[in-house]
Amino acid sequence: RPVEAIRDAQAAAFVGDYRVLRYDIRGHGGSEVTLAPYGLEVLVADVHGLIQSLGVERVHFVGLSLGGMIGQLFALAHPERLDRLVLCDTASEMPDPEMWAERVRIAEKDGLAALAAPTLARWFTPAFHKTRPDEVARIRDLILRTPVDGYVGACRAIAGLDATARLKEIVAPTLCIVGDRDETTPPAAARAIRDAIPGAELVLLDHAAHLSNIEQAAAFNAALAGFLARG
Description:
α2 packs across α3 (66-77), α4 (97-110) packs antiparallel against α8 (148-159) and α5 packs across α7 (133-145). The chain is of the alpha/beta class. It has eleven helices and four strands, in the order ααβαβαααααβαβαα. The protein is globular, with a radius of gyration of 17 Å. α9 (187-196) links the parallel β3 (174-179) and β4 (201-205). The protein has a four-stranded parallel β-sheet with strand order 1-2-3-4, with helices on both faces. The longest helix has 14 residues, at 40-53. The two termini are 32 Å apart.
C-alpha cells in the first residue's frame, strides 16, 4: 500500500472541496527508488516537476515530518507556486546527523523490521497504541513495505537539513501543526519555525505524538480547514 495512505483521513475530508494531490516521496511507496545520497533539494525538484507535469499553477502545500521539510524548501525555491503552507510535526534543522547515520546502519544491516517498533513508539502515544492497535498495525505495514534504499536516501537527505536561518524569506501564509507529545519533532521545533516565518501561526494538538494527523484526525482537519478557508 502506498505511503501516501498515511494521509487517508485528510484526503477523505478535503476531496469534496479541493483538488487533492497525494504523492509518494522518492524511494517510498510506489515512487521509484534511486540510490542515495541525494539532498532535500532533489526532493523539492520532484515536487516542482510533478505539479508542472500536471499543469498545476499554484498549490496549498501540506507536509508532515519529511514532507514539512520539503515544504519549507519548496516555499523558498518556488514562492510563485505556493498559496498557503502547512508544516506539520516537522523541524527546520537537524542538530544530530549521527542519529540518522545510526538508523542507516541498522536499516542496511537488519532491514526496516529492526526499526519498526521504536519508530511506532515515537509516532504514537501509548494510549493510541492501546486503543487503536489496528491503526498502528496499518502504519507498521507501511514501514515494512518501504524499500531499504528509499529509507536510507531519506535519512541521508534529512541529516543535512539546515533551513532555520532562511525561514524569514518565506512569504506564503504559514500554519504549523504539532502534537503535544511529539518527541521526534517536538513542539519546540514547531515554535522555532513559527517564530522564524513572518506571520506564521501554530496549533498544538493535545494527546498526539508524531503522526498527529492520524492520532487526532478530527482536530488536525479542523485546524487545516480553518486555515485553508482563509486562502
